[in-house]
Design brief:
Elements (H helix, E strand, L loop, with lengths): L2 H8 L6 H9 L4 E5 L11 E5 L4 H11 L4 E11 L2 E11 L2
Antiparallel strand pairs: 1-2, 2-4, 3-4
Length: 95
């Protein structure tokens, strides 16, 4: 693993970094992740990714193949300045 990738992974929450690494290595473009707990933004371990063409099912297949503890696959749109943006995908995991 090159230094840039190692540095990027070490900047992530430690309990979710491996999951992000698995998805990224398979070509899923993630943009947000959180291991959950305490002062974290999400109530459960979560990875968000771009899902314009159904990448959610691809991400789910990768996660299942690698025995990641997937809880949910979600597709959502954020409302920004009164307009929907997305779709985006989200995988949540059992703690």
């Amino acid at each position: 693993m090159d230094k840039k990738r190692r540095d990027w992974l070490s900047s992530l929450d430690p309990r979710i970094a491996h999951y992000v690494d698995v998805l990224d290595a398979a070509g899923i473009e993630t943009f947000e992740s959180c291991q959950s707990g305490g002062d974290h933004a999400f109530p459960e371990p979560t990875i968000r990714f771009y899902d314009d063409k159904g990448e959610g099912f691809h991400a789910l297949a990768i996660a299942i193949t690698h025995a990641l503890p997937v809880e949910d696959l979600r597709r959502y749109w954020q409302i920004v300045n009164g307009k929907p943006e997305g779709p985006r995908g989200e995988l949540t995991f059992r703690s």
